[in-house]
Amino acid sequence: MLTTDTILFSSPHSGSLHRQLIIRMFLLLMVTLLVLGIGVWIYAQRASDLSHDRLLTGAGLAILDSVREQSGRIEVDIPYAAMGILALARDDKVYYRITGPGGRYLTGYPDLPVRDVETHTGTPVFYNAEYKGESVRIALQEKFLTEQNVRGWVTVAVAQTTQARTELFREIMLGALGILSLVILLALAGTWVAISRALGPLYAIRREIQRREPTDLTPLTIETPDEVTPLVETINMFMRRLQENLDTIKMFIANAAHQIRTSLSTVQAQINLAQHDQTLEQLSQRIMKINDGHQRLNRLTNQLLTHALVTHRADTFQPESIHLTGLLQDILVQTVRDHAHTSVEFGFHNEAGDITIAGDTISLREAVNNLLHNAIKYGPENNQVTIQLQPGRVPENVPADDDRQWVEIWVDDEGPGIPKDFQLEALKRFSRLGEKQAQEHQVLGSGLGLAIACAVLEAHEGRIVLENLHPVGLRVRLCLPVK
Amino acid sequence: MTFMTDRKSIRGFYLWIVFSLLGCVPSLAGAVTLTLYSATDRAAIQPVIEAFNRKYPGIVVRYEEFQSNTLYRVLAGEADDPTPGQPQPDLIISSAMDLQTKLVNDGQAQPYQSEYTDSLPDWANWRNEAFGFTFEPVVFAYRKDLFVDQPLPDSHERLTELLRSNSKFYSNRIGTYNVNISGVGYLFATQDAIRSSLNGRLLESLGRVHAKTYCCTDDILRDLTDGKLVLGYNLLGSYALARIREHPELGVLLPKDYTLVMSRVAFIHKLAKEPGWAGVFLDFLLSPEAQNIMASQSGLVPLRTDAEGTYSRAAIDEKYSTSYQPIGLKPTLLVYLDRLKRARFLKEWRDAIFFDEAL
Amino acid sequence: MLKSMRVLLIEDNPELAEAIAEYFRHQGHPLDWVNSAEKAESVLQYQSFDMLVLDINLPGKNGDQLLKAMRKRGDPTPVLVLTARSAIDDRVSVLDLGADDYLVKPFDSRELMARCRALLRRERGLASNEIRCGNLVFQPDANRVLINGQEVEFRQREIQLLECFLRDLDHIVTKEKIYQRVYTFDEAPTPNAVEQNVARLRKKLTGSSLVIKTVRGLGYLAHVDD
Question: Would you tell me which residues 154-173 of chain A have a C-beta closer than 8 angstroms to some C-beta of chain B?
Fold first, then answer.
């Protein structure tokens, strides 16, 4: 039965959906953070370089501007503004070097590492270097003097330590990373909320089901979003089927109880009567009746157990290769042996050749056994019971993409057959032919034979078909897919 | 108390100052020796060193006094160390802010940071390497008695006017630094050039009244006291203020348009043997304790506004209404140290002051 | 009728055991009963039986362990296993362990008796000089057949045919098998001839316990109905 307990230790567990989503989202956001972080890193580098390079350029230009020729000599009057510009980066050291045409040293730090500029483009050249134990950024700018006495390039190298630049870089970087982290935290929080909301209906369904009495199988009436509605529908369908199964089981139990109790009462009554029987002949007849009643009980018990067995095996069996001809002959031989003393005739017909299917030998044996038993029981005394193995037609209701071969086992008898209207009913448990028919044939079946066959065929994904034969007889066709 | 400023060169002069609270000389073996190279009058700094020694009796302070230009040249490797074989300096102190800045720029300093350095105003702390610890206005000193019937030149502009209008009064009786020789003189002159558009005219006027030039503050103050001068232009305020306490006929003017403020700069040498103790000494210089000593005993106007004493900023502010323009410790100080720039500046200065000699 | 057989019943349910014992004794077969595999083992050490009827589900040592041990030490005594489990599950394993037949509870005592007889017949086989199948007695050496004590005249071919069926009691005997065993190469009988012979044999067996059933499409099956 369905109880809360069984739910708690059921079904394979694949971890929390909530957690998985969050972890994936987190990883995605981390990758985003990394990519953006690299981007910000490059941007911060460029931005800090650009802004501080401008200081260097400005200072260099101001110095170049002060370079002039005076009476045949190059004069440089470092403008205060030039250093003023550089001093905007207050904590950075400043170096410069000015050389005249031919690389002649004019002023500044003579050992400042100055690159040779091969192409005089007029645009500043920037580079990093080590100077006095510190890393410096150097801007190289040039001016061409075309005075009468002085002709050539004057080169100004302005250098600055990279402290402020690094600081700016760090500031941009940290600022951007701070904002990015905040955004990602918000995104995570948003994701959290979104996922919680999205999973809300699932939790609601769980609550609703947990809240219920174990016997409450009425449909769920939770309002759910479109995505979850199919799940609720499926659950409702499942519960409906469960309810149907429960009803069927209840009915089955009631029927079984009825049959067993009736048979037991009959036997009991006969035994009671036997105690009062006077003559040996009466007693002997009474015992015959008791024996008959007992046989019926026997049969009923066996069939109930068999039914339970095949139903159980339907869920658990591991398909094995079954050689159908061998199995059917084996079953038939047993039946012949058991009915050797009767005038029932048996036959075996194989039209399908050597066929092997995948299935459960035990269940299949029980199914055919029960059909044979029925065939004998409901047939006349000189019954002709035949088992046939026939190549099967693909039955209806098989999906188009299912291209399996089919094989059929026929069990024919010469009994009265089953009225067409009653055939469907006959396949259900405890459905028997009417009392009248039963009396007609002087037999009381338990009615489980066909149901057992039905259950076995269902487990084998097969079909069971009943056909009345002409002029008399019933043919039970077991259609099985060949795997 | 005698004040020896950046007097010529008191070369090779050094002393061990070892003080102990108990009055006994501790064993030198294993003691820490802290070497100071300084362009500050020993007498002015001595009370501070004494206080330091009282506080840290185990430290031997070796004090080497230099003229500021010499100190620069020694450290820059342009002159020989006067004490070969002795430990290199741990702490450098000088009033030549520009030269100190240059030394730091050239990588001679190492950074130091403490609660005291952090509390310094921006202009007095460069890169946590160079630290200003005094607040010394640049002043005009004058003979009160001689100015009884004369208008006081209370600003650079007023001085320029008066030099022209009363040229006779000032002729040969105004003194200032010879910027060729004096480090602080050069610093003040260049700062004037940067700050004042009148500077050219002022220099020219100084030339016209045949201003006398001196190497040192002390000499100007001496001539003022002696009555040879009526006004000393652009003097180091701390020394002038100390002088007028002893000579009531002398007065000090803080120019109203702008008063330059110089700060003595200390930095820890990069190759200091005792950088830790140098830092301790630096902190001590900036501590209220030492700043109070400066304000009350040494005559160096301390930087801290909360210092108390005759020479405290509070005392000065009380007497003189001024607009301070502190000379900031920053790379702009390097401009006038440029070889060509310096040559040009000095030439212009000479041309203005000694115009008639050139004739 | 077969001669009496000595049967050892190993069954833990005393009521069932008592009923079976009474039925067997009533039929003239002495039956010894023990209620555990351990006791059975000690009995088997000094006594031998014609066959064992073994309940597979015993307290203590289980029936299949006893069976396994017997077969391991080479004891060929026929064993019929009783089981109350949904027997078909056990069938394969029980037969694999060396049981000769099995019967599912509840069963008819007559059925048990018949199975025991059939087992014994199979065991004694055609080696003995007299084969009893219910009321039919066949003496192979003398080529004599007695039904209900009355000798019935059989032709040589019918005797051969009878022998063929008795050799494979309760099994399908195909017509091919009959050709091989009853006819020589030269005779090349028609299927019709076989059918006629079987029909003649069946007629002569009327009133005997031996039934020969025709299974169309497969062959014949001989069964002793006693």
Answer: 163
End-of-domain residue from the set A316, A341, A359 = A316
Task: Name the pLDDT band for B279 (thresholds 50, 70, 90).
Answer: very high
CATH number of the domain encompassing residue A257:
1.10.287.130
CB atoms within 10 A of CB C35: 18
**Looking at residue A376, what is its pLDDT?**
92
Q: Which residues, 6 or more positions from A42, have their beta carbon under 8 angstroms from its beta carbon?
A: none
Rounded to whole angstroms, what are the CA distances from A182 to A45, A194, C58, C147, C176? 22, 18, 75, 107, 92
Minimum CA–CA partner of A329 in chain C: C218
- Per the CB < 8 A criterion, the answer to whether A372 and A379 are in contact is no
Pick the residue with more confidence: C225 or C195? C195
Last residue of a domain, one of A209, A244, A279: A209
Phi (first) and psi of residue B262, to 5 degrees = -100, 150
**Residue B224: how many CA atoms within 13 Å on its side-chain side?**
33
Phi, psi values for residue A161, rounded to 5°: -65, 165
CA A122 centroid distance within chain: 68
Chain B residues lying within 8 Å of A83, measured CB to CB: 331-332, 334-335
- Reduced to 3 states (helix: H, G, I; strand: E, B; else coil), residue A310 is helix
Nearest to B332 among A80, A91, A107 (CB): A80
Asked if C221 and A333 come within 8 Å (Cβ–Cβ), the reply is yes
CATH class of C131-224: mainly alpha
Q: Which of C83, C86, C92 to mutate to test the interface with A (most CBs of A within 10 A)?
A: C86
A107: nearest CB among B105, B106, B338: B338
User: Is the bond preceding B84 in cis, omega lying within 30 degrees of 0?
Assistant: no
Q: Which residues contact A413 (CB under 8 A, 6 or more apart)?
A: A374, A375, A376, A378, A379, A383, A384, A385, A473, A474
What is the ipTM for the molecules in this complex? 0.82
**A121 CA: distance to closest CA in chain B (Å):** 27
Cβ A78–B335 below 8 Å, yes or no? yes
pLDDT > 50? residue C119: yes
Range of the domain at A94: 16-209
Site from B334, B336, B346 to mutate, A interface, most A CB atoms within 10 angstroms? B334
Q: Are strands C79-83 and C101-104 parallel, antiparallel or unpaired?
A: parallel
Interface test with A, best of B194, B337, B341, B342 (most A CBs within 10 A): B341
Nearest 5°: CA angle at A157, between A155 and A158? 145
* Interchain CB distance below 8 Å, A329 and C218: yes
Going by beta carbons, is chain B in contact with chain C, meaning 3 or more pairs sit under 8 Å apart? no
Q: Does A136 touch chain B (CB under 8 A)?
A: no
Q: Are A414 and A472 in contact (CB under 8 A)?
A: yes
Mean pLDDT value across residues C105-115: 85
CA angle A459, A464, A469 (to 5 degrees): 160
pLDDT at B104: 94
The per-residue pLDDT for B357 is 65
> Exposed, middle or buried: residue A218 (CB in 10 Å: 0-12, 13-18, 19+)?
exposed
Structural domains of chain B, with CATH: 14-135+263-319 (3.40.190.10), 136-261+329-358 (3.40.190.10)
| A232: amino acid identity, one letter | V
Query: Is A384 part of a structural domain of the chain?
Result: yes
Number of A to C CB contacts under 8 A, please give it.
Answer: 55
What pLDDT, on a 0 to 100 scale, did the predictor assign at position C167?
Answer: 83
Of B106, B122, B332, the CB nearest to A84: B332
d(CA C129, CA C138): 8
Q: Which chains pack against C, by 3+ Cβ pairs within 8 A?
A: A
Class in CATH terms, C7-124: alpha beta
- Is A8 within the bounds of a domain? no
Rounded to the nearest angstrom, the minimum Cα separation between A385 and chain C is 10
